[in-house]
Design a protein that fits this description.
Bound molecules: uridine-5'-diphosphate, magnesium ion
CATH topology of the largest domain: Spore Coat Polysaccharide Biosynthesis Protein SpsA, Chain A
CATH architecture of the largest domain: Alpha-Beta Complex
Number of helices: 10
Shape: elongated
Distance between the termini: 40 Å
Strand order of the largest sheet: 7-5-6-4-1-2-3-8-9
Strand content: 15-25%
């Protein structure tokens, strides 16, 4: 048995922040984060993953963080999506522990010291859980509740309900997650999947400091399907049972019809019952085929084995305060 001593958790923290068109949130993020990091008494780095921003996100980072040596921007070659951006960030994180946090301050960075304490005490994964979603619409709240209920029934690795992406993870979890070859990256599930010592921290979720969410309802729906299909094959298998049930009911109805016809003779042709059977069965077959397609499509993507993300360049911030252009190392 390996015992992790407290001193081996001495700490070098990587803060991983995905950004997509966030020119307005960078300054407020840093003005709140700065004091928190300074008080942590650990060495730290910030890794911004620019997920194909088309606004002034990169120049603003260079300007706001001018003079900092421990800030890097991993600029992806285009928008790959937040999940992929997080994998990119974890790939470049050098710390013994990493914090994943959104730039919009919906999750309070003030929890970092407590998270680090828990990590020092031996937890490998410390995850933020939203105790309230006052900032979300009623529909978003209801759909999130439904998602976790369905997901946790179907998945082998249930997640804490209302889990956020805000978390602190030990280096070994980072390495496991980065090494997972899958292209469909449901980060929450991937971080919870390795197991080890996991814990949650509750907090009420705030509204975005600036700008709007990058997630439309359609994007959220696809995200939910990605999550479900990545961690459960129940949606694929359940059709066997649905089919069996309908088959049994069908046989019972057939027996009833045969008996009834032999006793009372041929009835008036049953247009309505035939239509109902055709429509219901047709619908069920299409849905099951669609579900099959969801998995097949994802298998196709996995099989092609394209990289999860492509890096355009890594910009290391220069230590010279007057140099705001950044130094390209890639
Ligand atoms: N983000 C990203 N790529 C995307 C969408 C979002 O890197 O394709 C980043 C975004 O800049 C932010 C974080 O992911 O730092 C969370 O995004 P957002 O606040 O829009 O999501 P929500 O909080 O509404 O789920
Ligand atoms: Mg947000």
């Amino acid at each position: 048995m390996t015992v992790v001593s407290e001193s081996s958790r001495g700490a070098f923290l990587s803060v991983v922040v995905p950004v997509l068109n966030e020119e307005d949130t960078i300054e407020p993020f840093w003005s709140r984060m700065r004091a928190i990091l300074a008080n942590l008494e650990v060495a730290w780095e910030i890794i911004f993953v620019d997920d194909g921003s088309t606004d002034r996100t990169i120049p603003v980072i260079l300007q706001v963080f001018a003079g900092q040596t421990n800030v890097r921007i991993v600029k992806l070659s285009r928008n790959f999506g937040k999940e992929e951006a997080l994998t990119a960030g974890l790939t470049y994180a050098a710390g013994q522990v990493a914090c994943i946090i959104d730039i919009d301050l919906q999750d309070p960075p003030e929890l970092l010291p407590e998270m680090i304490e828990r990590w020092r005490a031996g937890d490998d994964v410390v995850v933020g859980v939203r105790s309230s979603r006052a900032s979300d619409t009623r529909f978003k709240k209801a759909s999130a509740t439904a998602f976790y209920a369905v997901y946790n029934r179907m998945s082998d690795v249930p997640l804490p309900a209302n889990m956020s992406d805000f978390c602190l993870i030990d280096r070994r979890i980072m390495e496991f997650v980065v090494a997972l070859p899958e292209r469909s990256r449901f980060t929450k599930g991937l971080l919870w999947w390795p197991g080890f010592s996991r814990t949650v921290i509750q907090y009420p979720r705030a509204s975005r400091i600036e700008g709007d969410s990058k997630y439309s309802y359609l994007k959220l729906w696809n995200y939910a399907i990605d999550g479900l299909t990545s961690f459960s094959s129940v949606p694929l298998r359940m059709w066997t049972y649905v089919g069996l049930l309908i088959g049994v009911v069908g046989i019972m109805y057939a027996v009833y019809l045969v008996v009834r016809t032999s006793i009372f003779g041929v009835d008036v042709p049953g247009y309505a019952s035939i239509m109902i059977a055709v429509l219901i069965l047709g619908g069920i077959q299409l849905v099951s085929l669609g579900m099959f397609g969801e998995y097949l499509g994802r298998m196709f993507v996995e099989l092609k084995g394209r990289p999860i993300f492509l890096v355009d360049k890594v910009i290391e911030l220069s230590s010279r305060p007057d140099d705001t252009t950044g130094r390209q190392t890639w």
